[in-house]
Design a protein that fits this description.
Layout (H helix, E strand, L loop, with lengths): L1 H4 L6 H13 L4 H14 L5 H20 L7 E6 L4 E2 L2 E2 L8 E7 L2 E12 L6 E3 L3 H14 L3 E7 L8 E6 L7 E3 H5 L2 E2 L7 E2 L4 E2 L1
Helix pairs in contact: 2-3
Length: 204
């Protein structure tokens, strides 16, 4: 945020960049942008690294929470995407879903991918789990690799212990936003581990 408002203004491009970063790590972008505008008016600038570091921690904490729900007797982590970059350069895996998993049972192996998103609270009556660009990337990945992609959404509580948990097939999203009503059908008990149904080929 510091870099965005250092010159005393918040441009359209800076707004979009800030929105993308904040949304990617689980906070309400409108609230953060409003906060940035308030900091401008008060001339009390909050360091950008403080905001990004906390958001990154939330993202990492939720990914770890999700990983723990895959019993290692049945599931293997084939890839855990990182997000390191410098001067706009990053590995191709950075743009892929967070986790590439393999489920094995009776000698059969099935690959699928999981994108992890934690949100502190509902946003306009639902969850904006990604940008349009990110949703398109996940869809292209699913089509190219010919494996299903799921979005694990944590809501409320803390990133490492959300109040509610949902696991949504990417094919169920009509846009990068899902209403609470539509989301509710994908509710997952926090007390149970994930399991992959070989008959339906659905993660639940």
């Amino acid at each position: 945020m510091d870099a965005a408002i250092a010159d005393g203004t918040l441009t359209k491009n800076e707004r979009e960049t800030l929105r993308r970063i904040v949304l990617d790590y689980g906070q309400d972008p409108d609230r953060v942008i409003l906060d940035a505008e308030q900091k401008l008016s008060d001339q009390k600038i909050k360091a950008e690294t403080e905001v990004i570091d906390q958001n990154k921690k939330n993202g990492n904490d939720f990914e770890k929470y999700i990983v723990k729900k895959f019993d290692h007797k049945f599931f293997t982590i084939k890839n855990w995407a990182g997000d390191k970059f410098v001067e706009g350069r990053y590995a191709e895996t950075t743009q892929q879903p967070d986790l590439l998993m393999e489920f094995k049972l009776k000698g059969e192996g099935h690959l699928f991918a999981v994108e992890c998103k934690w949100r502190e609270r509902l946003y306009r009556g639902g969850v904006e789990f990604a940008t349009v660009e990110q949703l398109n990337r996940y869809s292209k990945f699913q089509k190219k690799e010919k494996i299903p992609v799921y979005v694990a959404i944590g809501l409320g509580g803390e990133a490492d212990n959300p109040e509610q948990l949902f696991i949504v097939p990417l094919t169920s999203f009509e846009s990068n936003f899902i209403s609470k009503k539509d989301l509710s059908q994908f509710w997952k008990s926090r007390e149970k581990d994930f399991f992959y149904n070989l008959n339906t080929e659905i993660l639940n």
